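Chapter summary example.
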Amino acid sequence: MDSEACKTEDNELTMVKISQEEMATLQDIETGSASMLQPFIKKEKKQHNSRGNGSLFMVLLSTFVAIMGSFEFGSIIGYSSPTQQAIMEELGMSSSEFSVFGSILTIGAMVGAITSGHAADQIGRKGTMRMSSVICIAGWLIIYLSLGPLSLDFGRFLTGYGIGVHSYVVPIFIAEITPTNLRGALLTLHQVSLATGLLVAYTIGALVTWRTLALTGMIPCAVMIVGLYFIPESPRWLAMVGCQNEFHATLQKLRGEKADVSGEEAEIQDSLVILQHLPKATVKDLFLKRNLSLVIVGVGLMVFQQFSGYNGIVFYANQIFISAGVPPNVGSILYACLQIIVLALGAVIIDKAGRRPLLMISASGMLVGSLLTGASFYFKEHHLASDLCPVFTITGIMVDMGSYCLGLGGIPWIVMSEIFPIHIKGIAGSLVTLVSWGGSWVVSYSFNFLMSWSSYGAFSVFATFCAVAIVFIFKLVPETKGRTLEEIQASMD
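The structure predicted for these 493 residues follows.
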């Protein structure tokens, strides 16, 4: 849908007046004497009309269609592990050439992440998901038809671009269509679906050729493209571009025909008007004293998320298990199943246990897992306790992956959404996303070289990052459970 086509002749009908009190608050924000979050905190005190129970069918259907992008995300990440040996043998690729193939995915994802926000605002959430799905299909077809490293890398880059866009737009779309009381639960399906896609890629990859596996990667994209014709656009995006009639009809459709949506409708309109009056943030604002500590926390968590070694293990799991004398297919499928279980557990306890404890437990578990895996390679290289090496490897990888999914995998993104003021959230979020994908590229590209240099040395490096992460979380990361955004901001000053 073209946003310009939705502009009405009388813009006053699409705007909500700002009270004198709100205008004074906005002026205080611009001069720095009030919190960026004050207008939104005040909104929480309003009494809204009941939404009613309504029908959840359309919300659940829309979420299902959207998380096909998350499933595709997992399928693409998991593709390189079960196919490494077959691709290298058939196409005559060296270890360094396959490292490029594995890591170029993250280059494409970085480009996709940078462009995703603009695309989502210009062509809508549905249009952006449709575009990224088509690009992923094109990438898979190129991989399927590849006869050499160049075309293989180009196809991988395109699939990376697609999941870079999906990583932004899927959670945004889900958050914008779901009722407040279901938002947290449905957002966790993004991570669960990603882990499921990873498991399916490992399982099917153990049974079919690498070219056939590339064809199966197109299925989630096809389901999404078809499904998008049967679900509504994000009501918030429709309101943002001035499609008032469609906005009301879509919100009513998502909440049910008999639900009273007037309160939610007014809340969305009010928040959009306030956002339009806030001063535009620049990169320079990230380095102001009041924001710098927030940026350090957000960027730091992403650095430790990536350099704990997770992506290296995911991309090259089969190679790790083979090197340690473990049947690769069995090992990969086992830890992929574990991820789904732990993610489901984390979704249940995160609002009870808190962010900091889970992050601390996660980093500590990954430290133990890295040390166990590194010890297995050390024992194998020095012919010590050879019978125990496979046990150490499986245990280490399972502890490592399970711990990652419990905390460092998803919580940094949650903390990021909570600590940044709305004024800088977009630009700060872009920076944090770039750091995340950039770190993923460094780890995935260097992992093969680290393993060639020293298998146990590579996991010692990851263990060191995990140890530093524990200190970082303990010293700098605030607990955000059960606190308003304003309270979080005050604690960071």
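To summarize the output: The chain has 22 helices and no strands.
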